[in-house]
UniProtKB/TrEMBL annotation:
<dbReference type="InterPro" id="IPR000182">
    <property type="entry name" value="GNAT_dom"/>
</dbReference>
<keyword id="KW-0808">Transferase</keyword>
<dbReference type="InterPro" id="IPR016181">
    <property type="entry name" value="Acyl_CoA_acyltransferase"/>
</dbReference>
<dbReference type="InterPro" id="IPR050680">
    <property type="entry name" value="YpeA/RimI_acetyltransf"/>
</dbReference>
<feature type="domain" description="N-acetyltransferase">
    <location>
        <begin position="51"/>
        <end position="207"/>
    </location>
</feature>
<keyword id="KW-0012">Acyltransferase</keyword>
<protein>
    <submittedName>
        <fullName>GNAT family N-acetyltransferase</fullName>
    </submittedName>
</protein>
<dbReference type="Pfam" id="PF00583">
    <property type="entry name" value="Acetyltransf_1"/>
</dbReference>
Amino acid sequence: MHTRILLKVFGCFHKIERGDNHEKCGYCFFIHGTWRSYSNVTSNKLRRSYMKIRDYREEDQASWLRCRVLSFMDSSYFDDVQRDREKYDNPVIQIVAVDHNGVVGFLDCEYEEKQGDVCYFKGDRGGVIWHMGLLPDYRGQGLATAMWHAAKKRLKENHVHRVEVWTQDDLEATRWYLKQGFVFKEAYLNAYLKGSLGDPTLKKFLNLQDCGDIFGIRSLNFEAPIERKEELADICYRLHEVRVYEAEL
């Protein structure tokens, strides 16, 4: 059942600051006891006693970085570890889901001030989701959708009309983006090779004579056209489709 009420509400950070009625707010949630969303999010599975969707703050950095690592561990991005929060060249909307232990989910969407500054495809002013994830224990409770609705509201307020996202071939992530109205546009391959110096496959990809004195290749990571998938599947120890999706706001 989709329940559209708030129970035991103690305050809503950005509405209360402006003196507005929290019952009009579909952006952030600060609830003790029970969490319910105005965004048609099924939330009766949520078990945490404290949950809030809000803007990222500088003091969230350590918790955000930990959350990102743990959120990606069961995905094809398990080795994409960041030790620092990157700085963006353009405006960015940074949303987090937090409970009393810190950040449990995150969404970063950089958007254009001028067409062509951020997006891969040409068109109206757009944005790109560079980071999005949720800790495993918090999935299936509507938090990802709540973060996306919060970000989408802000994007519309800034006259952004479309959003792109680059992701790999993780089934659950793909299903979620399609459910939110994202449309597949194109793909390429993210390929990984390794082997000894005598490996004929490596010799095909590398001029080993120019490498100097080495013992082997631990990992050769390269990008390739999607048309080479069948060829590379036979020789790569890891091979992912990198897919770009786009949604109109």
